Amino acid sequence: MKQEEQFMPMISDHGSPAALSGSEILRQENLHLNTVGTVYDSVFRTECEHLKPLLIPVINELFRTDYAMEDVGALRLANEHLLRDHDSDKEKIKRITDGLIKLGDMMYHIECQSTSDGSILIRLVDYNLRIGYEYAFHDTKKGCVRIEFPRSALLMLDKGGRTKVSDMQVEYCHGEESLRINIPVMHVQAYSMDEIFEKKLYFLIPFYTMRFKRKIKQIVRDRENTLESKVKYDKIISEMKVIADRLYKACEDKELSEDYTRELGNMYREIAEAMAAGLDDDRREGMVNTMGGKILKLQAEIWMEEGMEKEKVNTEREKKRADEAERKLAEARKEIERLKAAAN
Fold it and tell me: Which of 112, 175, 207, 236 allows an S-S link to 4, with CB 3.0 to 4.6 Å?
């Protein structure tokens, strides 16, 4: 194929070229998928799989749309087709479908990144090409093959700064023709607790603890356990308790279902445990348990426990009645035997 006929995506972060070639990054990504799999990725995938409607406010924030929670479509990719053609890429196909959501006639593809290593945009190009090929069709009216790519975005989980949403670019080139596409990037740690709850960005809650990473490292390095470290730890715990209380209130106010609230609590605990790995046992347990108690034991379970307790009380009451009846019957038998003996 001649050079000018090649289809070549060019990727940049505000115009800067990627340091590695696309093929090299994809080779490294395949190795990463087979050997690493961080807790952040695991939590993101779990949320995408079990809490997919919570992605809708995130999409609204990224693309300035106004979808309602009930607008989520039941999109099913032809996984068996993809896996038949790419049998060695089963884990990669799972990653593609996890972050894919359909709203109306529009497909959205969301990915997360915990480090800024330049590979994520290459992955997005790879994933979007696969999705586009899967849904490609021959448009007889226009006399061409139509390939529709999903609208893509990134969640940057661990990169600081005040900018909430920035842009990266992908430029698709064919000879002298090119198409440049903006990829919105949400910087999760730039959102305050108030903004998360006001904008209903509940999907971000499990990653909230990641903003304490630097302070936690400082506490771990303080082998003398100074007063400064104690103050830092207490402030972290205080803030974590506030977010747990607000999550529980969102459930009470019917903003979130009990199942979603419990799932968010579990995901929050997973990341909190990873963040607290270097702390001593008491402090680590303290961080993890801030999202325990009433979050993990919600009303349905309370009702169940109350029902079991009532059943236990009723059972004990019936047992007492049965014992009392048995006692009276035994006394009656003794009285009959006494009367019989007196008559003889």
Answer: 175
